[in-house]
UniProtKB/TrEMBL annotation:
Family membership noted in the UniProt record: Belongs to the BCCT transporter (TC 2.A.15) family.
Highest taxon, organism lineage: Bacteria
Keyword field contains Protein transport: no
Classification via InterPro entries: BCCT_CS, BCCT_transptr
Subcellular location: Cell membrane
Any one GO cellular component localisation term in the record: plasma membrane
This protein's name: Choline/glycine/proline betaine transport protein
């Protein structure tokens, strides 16, 4: 067997997903490496087209995801469990919360924790603000970008993966969320297309994040005196070294060691956060946090739809900040969503949504307040020390530490945190890329991890070479547009799946089977395995319902009541039993032949006998008050009589209650005097 054949034999990659993705990524990398100027100009032109024509779509999509999740949370669908109804959560509540904290922490917060609030403070989106209003607005905008809306984008993917993966045992891939819409076609062209777009989106989202990490690691080394250059060559070395370590981690089987390293990293980050709170303006930070939380939540709905449609001068700001963020979050959604889905088996949808939306968001708000407000306070106290380096965004974090005690120690800790997040993000990213490209397979050969690591490194370096972070952001923006459209359709698929789930779980036994004993079980089995046709229902009405209703008419008349029966033949034959009242509405118990479409799976299943047509016919009851009826085909004559009497007893009990006169009284006064009608000729 040749080397190529051995690779094919061991591979878990699915060609319809892998080949188009690699071809597209290779084209972008080639274009950016060998034609950097043209690539930069092309990407800028495409970015401008997207900003001009589709900024509203990114904002609307983010708002839709947020509102959709909140609706699920407060509805009865929120009680559905991610897994079987008997499944318990795999992790304790506190462990689950801790892992959500971990999901909310990463290179992004280290890079933007100081940079974003400070940038909004120096260049506020709103004009004519005083000093306190500028600070408040800067923090509010940062919360918006890193808060609930970001996690709503993640949560949509995570919820779909967890729901269809754990409840229906489908693969943990994006295509599985479209099963209610596409059925078995998710295994064909449309399913492959969905996964290709998800895979490309994840690749460019990871590449953008790794670009931020490389630039900030470089800035940290410069601050510590380890490096004195920010050239492309230095960035290339950082990326290559980090990706080499990530790939080695991914293929070495030291997952437990990486997990422990990640947990240690979170502890260091927590200690760094605590240090900034203590070394900074502590009381001011707590006071601002309290007020900022109220301001944020009270403005949440308003800012969800903010597109500055009536303020054209602010739309450039919207595109370069909010729209880029929404695209970035969407590109990371399969990555973060898979992690969240894996740890959430056994949770209810309500618990999942509240935990995923609010726990990481609150942590991010605490982080942004601590680092952002401290940076603004330091800048005010030092006469603009941070303003002087504000053009070098990645250096702002280290500029803040330089103005606080133990600057060398804290800066070293920050570089360590960023480096570990860089490596663990790439390591986890390789796993997710393998998962998507392998259509949910969790075990893949080592050479695939090496391939993905090399692909990420080459793509990241080619985009950095052609235009720096701007090129990375533009590619993320481009690929996120179709993926966000897919996510909106995914919401519809998830909604449809949940509705079917609710109807399935609440489906009760037929009324006729409620009091079954062992009598006549063979006849009942024959009816179950031989679906009824139109002729069968007509025979049921004539041979079972008609004699039952005749006996009821006779017995009611024995008690001085006016009762009548009607048989109405035709396309949908029906039979009615009616008790005539003077002041009350007439009591009516009817049975009508109704048709129902059968599932294609049942019709096409060769192991389900006696089903040759796409519909069956059932005798369904209906009542005077318009309530939903039920199937009575399994009832005997005496059981049908008993069911009519149960409904009549219910009717009389309601009629005796003054509170129900609106339903039971003859409010239209249409029956002053009614003579019994004769049974129609059969």
């Amino acid at each position: 067997m040749s080397f190529i054949q051995e690779l094919r034999a061991s591979s878990t990659l699915k060609a319809p997903i892998f080949v188009p993705t690699v071809a597209f990524v290779a084209f972008i990398a080639f274009f950016c490496l060998f034609f950097p100027d043209q690539a930069q100009n092309t990407l800028n032109a495409v970015k401008q087209v997207l900003f001009t024509n589709f900024s509203w779509f990114y904002i609307l999509a983010g708002a839709i995801f947020f509102l959709f999740l909140m609706f699920l949370c407060v509805s009865s669908l929120g009680s559905i469990r991610l897994g079987a109804d008997t499944d318990e959560p795999e992790y304790s509540f506190m462990s689950w919360i801790a892992m959500l904290f971990a999901a909310g922490m990463g290179i992004g917060l280290m890079y933007f924790g100081v940079a974003e609030p400070f940038s909004h403070y120096l260049n506020p989106v709103h004009e004519n603000l005083n000093e306190s209003e500028r600070i408040k607005d800067a923090l509010m905008t940062s919360f918006y970008h890193w808060g609930i809306h970001a996690w709503a984008i993640y949560a949509v993917i995570a919820l779909a993966l967890a729901y269809f993966g754990f409840r229906y045992k489908l693969p943990l891939t994006v295509r599985s969320g479209f099963y209610p819409l596409l059925k078995n076609r998710i295994s064909g062209f449309w399913g492959n297309l969905i996964d290709v777009i998800a895979l490309c989106s994840t690749i460019f989202g990871l590449t953008t994040t790794l670009g931020y990490g490389a630039m900030q690691v470089n800035a940290g080394f410069k601050f510590l005196g380890v490096l004195d250059s920010s050239s492309f060559g230095v960035l290339a070395i950082i990326v290559i070294v980090a990706m080499t370590i990530s790939v080695a981690s991914a293929i070495s089987g030291v997952g437990r060691g990486v997990k422990i390293l990640s947990e240690i990293n979170l502890v260091i980050a927590g200690l760094l956060l605590l240090f900034v709170i203590i070394a900074g303006p502590t009381l001011l930070l707590f006071s601002e946090l309290t007020e900022n939380l109220g301001y944020y939540f009270s403005s949440l709905l308003e800012i969800s739809f903010r597109t500055f449609a009536y303020e054209a001068d602010k739309q450039g700001w919207l595109s370069s900040w909010t729209v880029v963020y929404w695209a970035w979050w969407a590109s990371w959604a399969p990555f973060v969503g898979l992690f969240i889905a894996r740890i959430s088996k056994g949770r209810t949808i309500r618990e999942f949504i509240l935990g995923v939306l609010f726990i990481p968001s609150l942590f991010n708000i605490l982080w942004m307040t601590s680092f952002g407000s401290s940076a603004i306070w330091v800048d005010q106290q030092t006469g603009g020390a941070l303003t002087a380096i504000s053009s070098n965004t990645e250096a702002l974090l280290f500029g803040l530490f330089d103005q606080l005690p133990f600057s060398t120690l804290t800066s070293t800790a920050a570089v360590v945190i960023i480096s570990i997040f860089f490596i663990t993000s790439a390591d986890s990213g390789i796993f997710v890329l393998n998962n998507i490209a392998s259509q949910g397979s969790e075990k893949s050969p080592k050479w695939q991890s090496i391939l993905w690591g090399a692909l990420l490194a080459v793509l990241g370096l080619s985009l950095l070479y052609s235009g720096g972070l701007a090129s990375l952001q533009t590619m993320t923006l481009i690929i996120a547009l179709p993926f966000m459209a897919i996510m909106i359709v995914l919401c519809f698929g998830l909604w449809k799946g949940l509705m079917v789930d609710s109807q399935y779980s609440n489906k009760k036994f037929t009324q006729g089977s409620g009091n079954w004993s062992g009598d006549n079980w063979k006849e009942r089995l024959e009816k179950i395995v031989n679906p009824t046709n139109h002729k069968d229902i007509r025979q049921f009405l004539l041979k079972t319902a008609r004699p039952a209703f005749k006996e009821l008419v006779e017995e009611f008349e024995e008690h001085g009541l006016i009762a009548q029966m009607r048989f109405i033949d035709g396309k949908n034959p029906k039979i009615e039993f009616e008790v005539v009242k003077e002041n009350l509405r007439n009591f009516l118990y009817g049975i009508e032949c109704q048709s129902r479409e059968l599932s294609e799976l049942v019709v096409e299943d060769s192991n389900v006998p006696n089903i040759d047509e796409s519909k069956i016919y059932e005798p369904i009851t209906y009542f005077f008050d318009g309530r939903n009826g039920y199937d009575v085909q399994y009832m005997t004559k005496d059981e049908l009589i008993a069911d009519v009497l149960k409904q009549y007893e219910r009717f009389m009990n309601l009629a005796m209650d003054e509170n129900h006169t609106l339903m039971t009284a003859d409010v239209e006064n249409m029956t002053d005097s009614v003579e019994p009608k004769n049974e129609s000729a059969l």
